[in-house]
Amino acid sequence: MLSTSHKIFLEVATHLSFSKAAKILFISQPAISNHIKLLEAEYKSALFNRKGNSISLTRAGKILFNHLQDALTIQRQIQFELTTIKDEGNVEGNLKLGASTTVALYIIPKILSAFHQKHPNLGIQLVNRNSENIIKALLENEIDMGIIEVENKITSISYQHFMTDEVIAVCSANSNLFARKTINVDDLVRYPVALREVGSGTLSALTQALKKHNIGIDELNVKVRLGGTEALKSFLLADRCMGFLPQKSVVKELAHGELVEIRVEGLEIKRDFYFIHRQGTEDFGLTKRFMRFAKASI
Fold it and tell me: Of the candidates 114, 127, 135, which has an alpha carbon nearest to the alpha carbon of residue 298?
């Protein structure tokens, strides 16, 4: 088990702030400082560089931080595996999951609910960010695993396929484009479009699909870019632009006739979603169990 001083160090090192750590841990800032001094005395090394009101990790601090992150993972794995031996249905632990927007909003909530009902003593945390920021959160140990669309694989991350999704072109039923239910891919550049922000998996999938037809994303008549699937969907409902959204995100709007799909001949936008882990953590019992459960639930 990690000592109190080590837990406090992890909190300070994560936020690079004594005051933030004090608020999160509900202890005074002087108490935080005393614990850090105890560790610095124990290791005979300064753990933080202090400059004015800002701090940064020293070389010794970085080494300690990395080892404590590993120790924390092992501690959680021990807790999960030992409680599993005692009672399969009453396991304990915490699952910190990150997912890109499509998965977080339209796919994973029902799966998480069913998983939690099966294991009510588990703590579950879901972070919703775009794919780029989920990778960042994983590498910085903010989450245990992620579910994202994958374009280029990183050697420090392991990947396991989860599911395949499709991105479609849609517009409002009130748009002039509604009359053109089918268009040719080469004609796309003629129509006003609204797109997701840079870093979005949806935008990346569209970019790759257009490349196969020698069309650059910058050749489109882009009127607006919006951060988030829901923001883009709301805009398209009110505007007359065409947009590209995951099919699973517009099921209700298509069924109710609020949005209409525009078929772009020759353009197929498929996205593969993957579970991602830091290399070496793929065998953590809780995440393995959740992956098996999620795949069986699709």
Answer: 114
DSSP code of 294?
A: H
CA distance 66 to 62: 6
Write the pLDDT tens digit of every residue in 41-89.
999 999 999 888 889 999 999 999 988 888 877 777 777 677 666 665 5
| Long-range interactions of 55-61: CB distance < 8 A, separation 24+ | 55/12, 55/16, 55/17, 55/18, 56/16, 57/13, 57/16, 61/13
CA distance 183 to 198: 26
pTM beyond 0.70: the answer is no
Tokens 């947009």, residue? 243
Question: Cβ contacts of residue 228 below 8 Å, gap of 6+?
Answer: 101, 196, 197
CB atoms within 10 A of CB 117: 8
